Amino acid sequence: EIHVKEPIEKEVNPRLLPGELLLCEASTVYKYMQEDGLNRGTYGKLVCTNFKISFLDDDSASDDNEPQFKNKIVGENDVTLQCIDQIYGVYDEKKKLLTGQLRKYPEKLIIYCKDLRVFSFCLRYTKEEEVKRIVSGIVHHSQTPKLLKRLFLFSYASAAPNNTDGRNQTVMFETLEDWRDELERTKGNVKYKAVTTNEGYRVSEKLPLYFVVPICISEESILKYEGRGIPIWCWSCHNGAALLKMSAFPKEQDDSTSQMQKAFLDGIYKTISKPPYELLKMDDLSSSLPSLQDIQTAYTRFKQLFLIDNSTDFWATDVKWFSLLESTNWLEIIRRVLKKAIEVVECLEIQHTNVLLIEESATDLCCVISSLVQVMMDSYSRTKSGFQSLIQKEWVIGGHGFLDRCNHLHKSEKEEAPVFLLLLNCVWQLVQQYPPAFEFTETYLTVLSDSLYVPIFSTFFFNSQHQRDTNKSGESLKTQSGPFRFLTVWDWSVQFDPKALAFLNNPLYAEKPKPDRSQRKTARFKHQRQLSLPLTQAKPPTKRGFFREETDHLIKNILGKRIGKFINSSEEPPNSLREFYDSWHSKPVDYHGLLLPRIDGPEIKVWAQRYLRWIPEAQLHGGGTIATAAKILDLMEEVQSLQVKMDAEHSQAVSGGIHSVPMLRNSARLSSLFPFASLQRQSVKPALPTSTWKDLEDEDDLVKRDDEFVDLSGDML
After folding, report:
1. 418: number of Cβ within 10 Å
2. Per-residue pLDDT, 45
3. Cβ contacts of residue 96 below 8 Å, gap of 6+?
4. pLDDT at residue 379 in the model
5. Are residues 198 and 123 in the same domain?
6. Of 33, 160, 204, 580, which alpha carbon lies 20 to 30 A from 117's?
7. Is residue 188 domain-shared with residue 228, that is, in the same domain?
8. What's the DSSP call for residue 14?
9. The pTM is what?
10. What 3-state class would DSSP assign to 100?
11. Domain check: are 362 and 263 in the same one?
């Protein structure tokens, strides 16, 4: 049975961006609501442009009940062509993947998105000609290989007025001066130098125009093997130890070539192992971390848990959710990556050893580990501008192949791997474990992950700085020749208004206090900027994972092996690393010093806001972390108003350091996955024809059962 809402009478037209063209459309399309099995929904128009697919109903025309957190570029019923993962057609109740040319057109269209939204459209009441045009148009423009210059990025750049404000504090690392400033900031300029050897890309098109190497490395060495075998500087620790990365030589070489390369490497290693350089530890990430193929396989399995078509599917998987989650191996990969970062931190911080990360191209897992190490050790990288500068340095200019790894052009699925998403998942673990240490919120990380698929910014749509520079010149639509002016994703005002931007900033961030002049010399001498190991012993806080207090003991017995993986794994870390980890966690946290993530067992959690935000059944209304945050924000607002009154009474100027606090209306009704699911309708659990639910239906309420975990134990084992 279809619960029909009358088709709209008035014409609703899509809001088009500069350079955006309407390609095809279909009227009288019925969009299903995801949250119930009653086939409820609304009629509207489905349109496809060279930028997005958009569903327009009568609510699209009105600005009433606008959400507090709204994206100005991509609306609630919009999905960019790059964000479409897979498209299925339903033929006689059977789902079939749609690719290439279609002989028969489906009666229902299901679109799975890379941000984990699922759109279902019924085409039974649409004219046959319109069905053919819209289905073939969507499949063609989103699933078939395309040329780089065909991306909407170029259409937008040539048509949009360049009126963005220049107040972006992010360091772009496009000039020699930016690299020199970074060397000076980290006190690395004594032993390392920024080089101009690659100007005109004469060394390699994969390397950035400017980069930093040890002072003792000659220009001839850099030129010899197109930059391969050269240690490139990432960051310097306060004690002088440095993090370096190197692109390895190909493994399949003839004997004479490999002998020459080995001799070359030996010479490089000897040069950078002598004083004034610290001892060198090399780490081949291709042998110590999962392969890109393993990461892609794990994530493909993992995301299937969240691409939910309907409530029935959700409740069917809910009973065995933890065992399904475990079998994906995604959380285990996150744990292994964080563990590797802790190993590197221990070498730099405790052993005062230089660490050289080695990878075939040094643009994938090298980027993940070097970024994580800097987030853990350098409090500047935990500010918003510092984190953005870090992404620019290590990923955008560092040459991570966003175009291939995100498969934006649909050229080859073999190259696809969610490497950048893996970094954001790891950083999220730190953000949720130590919220006051970060100037940005988990919402910031979520919208950053969404921005991977918004092709109006050049940040995530090139494989290298060379590719970006060579494609910058072009003809503008206004018939005047000139270079394209690409936007950067770091100008958040393009996507959000000031009210929404407030959700990206953490109001509870503990800003770094400025030391008194009398204390500055002592602080510098003792090198206490990074390491937080005070003398007083403190009780570690009680930790809670997914499980309730009374079940903890039994769960630990059931999952003993899993929880103790860090200690008892086959790759058991050296005692010094375990001592370092335990010693740090036994003491109070300095939010401006070193941060080490907790990685034992269930401490590694699912990033709920990103992965569960579109599933109504997973939302807790009036609960979750947002409920706590709302209370704290109320208190902060009260403190700020009292401060204003006190300043007024004493005739003083109002302090300019007060952050704007986002107002949370109806905080009791907010979803735990706010701000993406602010006031969702409650979902009703359907009666499932499964023996599991039949057994459970005798109980008054599943949540009230004390032995709920017992039913899960079989799956967990």
Report:
1. 23
2. 96
3. 88, 89, 90, 106
4. 97
5. no
6. 160
7. yes
8. -
9. 0.84
10. coil
11. yes
Q: What does the pLDDT look like over 50-72, one tens digit per residue? A: 999 999 987 765 555 567 789 99
The number of domains in the chain is 2
Which helix (H) or strand (E) is 583 found in, with range? helix 575-585
- Cβ within 8 Å of residue 602, ≥6 positions away: 545, 546, 547, 559, 563
288-308: burial string, b at 16+ Cβ within 10 Å, e else = bbbebeebbbbbeebbebbbb
Cα–Cα dist 517/712, whole Å: 59
pLDDT at 62: 59
Is 302 inside any structural domain? yes
Backbone angles phi, psi at 536, to 5 degrees: -80, 135
CA distance linking residue 461 with residue 459, whole number of Å? 6
Q: Mind giving me the DSSP string for 304-359?
A: HTT---SHHHHHHHHTTHHHHHHHH-HHHHHHHHHHHHHHHHHHHHTS--EEEEEE
| Cα angle 202, 358, 459; round to 5 | 60
Q: How far apart are CA 37 and CA 40, in angstroms?
A: 8
Cis, bond preceding 276 (omega within 30 deg of 0) = yes
Contact 589, 376 (CB under 8 A): no
**The one-letter amino acid at 584:** W
Residue 629 structure tokens: 């945050």
| 267 falls within a domain | yes
What pLDDT score does 298 carry?
98
* 246 & 122 share domain: no
- Residue 101's pLDDT is 82
Q: How far apart are CA 132 and CA 705, in angstroms?
A: 52
In this prediction, residue 181 carries a pLDDT of 97
Instruction: Please check whether residues 196 and 138 belong to one and the same domain.
Output: no
Burial class, 434, CB count within 10 angstroms (exposed 0-12 / middle 13-18 / buried 19+): middle
Q: What pLDDT does residue 61 have? A: 55
Verify that 114 and 245 share a domain, yes or no. no
346 shares its domain with 430:
yes
Task: Quote the CA–CA distance of 35 and 314 in Å, as a whole number.
Answer: 10
Q: What is the DSSP letter of 708?
A: H
CB atoms within 10 A of CB 417: 23
Task: For residues 471 and 466, give the distance between their C-alpha atoms in angstroms, rounded to a whole number.
Answer: 9
Q: Residue for token digits 């134990």?
A: 713
Q: Both 101 and 185 in a single domain?
A: no
For 448, the domain range is 176-252+259-503
**Beta strand segments in 196-324, E:** 211-214, 232-236, 242-247, 280-284
In the chain, the amino acid numbered 46 is L
- The region, left, alpha or beta by phi > 0 then psi within -120 to 50, assigned to residue 560 is alpha
Which residues of the chain fall short of a pLDDT of 50? Answer: 1, 8-9, 475-480, 520-572, 653-658, 679-681, 686-717
